[in-house]
Amino acid sequence: MHPLLGEGIFSQDGPAWKQSRELIRRQFVRIRKKTPQSFAPHVDVLLARIAEGVTDDPRIDLKPLMFEYTLNTTTALLFGEPHNSMPKEQANAVRQNYDEASFGCSIRVRLADAAFLYNTAKFKKACQAVREWATFFASKAMQYKDEHEEKAAAEKYPFIIDLWKEMHDFDLVRDQLLHILVAGRDSTASLLCWTMSVHG
């Protein structure tokens, strides 16, 4: 998964993994203290999208809606603003590249030691696009820190600034963001879809 995620908790072992785990654990403790109201705007968007899909056929494909919902909540927590704050065309391009890169990583994981065999131009291009997207948000937070001092930046971009204070390495900060993005978007969306499927 290194072409997409770089250096972080999913690609580390030993002391480096323990350090990443501690950094991320602190962030989850902080997130747990957030009020449910912080998720309300994203739930409103999800419900509106569901309502738009209601027709004479009572069946609605929730999968794309749940993946969009978790992408918005995760980017809001990690990057300081949700994915849907981007222009629609750009947001769709990021989503498509992310899905392509994730698909490629799932193949490489199955190949294990032979992962190098799957390294198509499309996969590499998608990984690069996602990494540039994360770089944009990490750079934005660093620029805000330089212009408004660290305390103000920590309020607007708490996850990024906390990683920076610990690592002082821009590339590692960006890579850790990508690792948590994967965990926060895909696994949560799959759980929500499964829950609705079982209990719907």
Describe the overall structure.
The chain is mostly helical and 200 residues long. The chain has a single domain (2-199), classed as Cytochrome P450 (Cytochrome p450, Orthogonal Bundle), CATH 1.10.630. 77% of the residues lie in helices and 0% in strands. The chain has eight helices and no strands. Helix 3 packs antiparallel against helix 4 and helix 6 (121-156) crosses helix 8. The radius of gyration is 18 Å and the shape is globular.
SSE inventory with pairings:
Layout: H1 2-5, H2 14-32, H3 40-53, H4 63-79, H5 88-111, H6 121-156, H7 158-167, H8 170-199
Helix pairs in contact: 3-4, 4-8, 5-6, 6-7, 6-8, 7-8
Extended strand count: 0
Shape: globular
Residue-averaged pLDDT, rounded? 86
What is the makeup of the main sheet? none
What is the gyration radius calculated from CA atoms? 18 Å
- Give the helix/strand class: mainly alpha
Gap between N and C termini: 34 Å
Number of helices: 8
SSE order, one letter for each helix or strand: HHHHHHHH
What name is given to the CATH topology? Cytochrome p450
Q: Provide the CATH architecture.
A: Orthogonal Bundle
Helix content: over 70%
CATH 4th-level superfamily: Cytochrome P450
Proportion of beta-strand residues: under 5%
Give the total of domains.
1
Summarize the structure.
With 200 residues, this protein is mainly alpha-helical. It has helices at residues 2-5, 14-32, 40-53, 63-79, 88-111, 121-156, 158-167, 170-199. Helix 5 (88-111) crosses helix 6 and helix 6 (121-156) crosses helix 7 (158-167).
